[in-house]
Amino acid sequence: MQFYARNTVMESRQWHALTRDAVLSELDSVMTGLSSVQVAARLRDYGANRLPEPPKRSLLRRFLLQFHNVLIHVLLGSALVTALLGHVVDTAVILGVVFINAAIGLVQEYRAERALAAISDLLAPYANVLRDGGRCSVRVEDLVPGDIVLLSAGDRVPADLRVLRSHGLGIQEAMLTGESLTVEKHTDPVFPAVAVAERSCMAFGGTLVVSGQGVGVVVATGTDTEMGRISHLLGNVTTLTTPLVRQMNVFARRLTVVILSLALVVLALGHFIWHYPFSDLFIAVVGLSVAAIPEGLPAVMTITLALGARAMARRNAVVRHLPAIETLSSVSVICTDKTGTLTRNEMVASELVTVDECLVISGEGYAPDGEIRSAELRLDPQTRPGLQELAQVAALCNDAALQNSEGSWRVEGDPMEGALLALAARLGVTRAKAQQQWIRTDVLPFEAEHRYMATLHHDHEGHARLFIKGAPERVLAMCRRVRTADGGEAYLDDNWWQARIEALAARGQRVLALASRMVPASQTVLARADVEGGIVLLGLVALMDPPRPEAVAAIAECQRAGIGVRMITGDHATTAAAIGRMLGLARTQRVITGAELDTMNDGELGRAVMETDIFARTSPEHKLRLVTALQAHGLTVAMTGDGVNDAPALKRADVGIAMGRKGSEAAREAADIVLADDNFASIVAAVREGRTVNDNITRVIGWTLPTSAGEAATIMAALLLGMVLPVTPVQILWVNLITAVTLGVALAFEPGERSAMQRPPRSPHAPLLGWFWLWHIVLVTLLFLAGVFGVYAWAIGQGHDIALARTMAMNTLIMMEIAHLFFIRSIHAPAFSIATLRGTRAVWSAIAIVVMAQCAMIWVPPLQAIFDTRAIPFFEGLLIPVVGVLLLLAVETERQLRRRMKKHWHGSIGHHASK
Ligand code: ATP
Question: Which key words are in the record (predicted)?
Answer without folding.
Answer: ATP-binding, Cell membrane, Magnesium, Membrane, Nucleotide-binding, Phosphoprotein, Translocase, Transmembrane, Transmembrane helix
